[in-house]
Amino acid sequence: MVIAVATSLCINVKVSAEQLNFATSNNGDSVTFNYQWTDSKQVVHSVSFELPRETIKQNPTLQPNYKPKIAQRYVMVALLKESQKLNPKEAKVSLKRQQDGIDIKVTSPSEEKAAEVLENLQTVQQTAFNTYLDEHYYTRFSTIFNQRAVKPDHLRYINESVKPMVPVSQAFYEKLAPQSNSRDYFALLLSWIQSIPYNAMEDRVASNGSGFVPPIGLLLQNSGDCDSKAVLASSMVRAFLPTTNMIIVFLPNHALLGVALTPMVDDETIEFEGKKYVLYDPTGPAQIPFGQVSESTKQFIDTGRFQIELVK
Questions:
Q1: Record's superkingdom (predicted)?
Q2: Is the model's pLDDT at 4 over the cut of 60?
Q3: CB atoms within 10 A of CB 1
């Protein structure tokens, strides 16, 4: 079985966001982050927030590279350990590494025993592979072309980052004027994330996942690709709207987000499992307003070339 690795390439064109200043400072048990940027109307904004050092220490800041050979070795060790439990008089096992996996052959005087052992080893094989993916924050993924792949576990990163991102989300909430609504929050949040320097990445099924950066890692290095920014935005929005339905929309070479708010007339929306979601794109540097997407993104969505994951 060939397993590709998923990451993404993000392209946008419009008025560019500009980050005017980024700085961090150490304050004993915490780190302070300071930002200054301009929005699409050239209004200058600034925000500061603190993250406890313990929070930074306890959460991943880098995405381990997916290395098929190491994953295969991990699975092989599990299979060898299981095979050693067998009585050689009852069944013998042959394990051979192949480019696309591990070939398992079982010989036994009893066909029933051979089938039983083979089924058990295949279960061990899948369990070991799943464990390896879980330990390295990866998950299985099928592209719109039905190509089986492996990608960073975006949903897990979002869920595990909600609590750490509460101080960040709160800092933006406190910047809003009285009587502001959810759209005002999204407008401010998007202008900030879009201004964070953007790192381009390779095609989603051609990379080892090394370009993805978890939320805290993105804040520390002050840069990220579209997948990384989408996960950061989702974790912050989930902290702000804990019960509102949210989705990640994967295009072949891009990722954007959707939230189940009441759409306005000009909003770009998408329906998923009976709910309508307002789309928004935190990638940058293009300053694309909440509820709008680029023309290239719209073409992919209009032609059905996308996949959706529900943020729980």
A1: Bacteria
A2: no
A3: 8
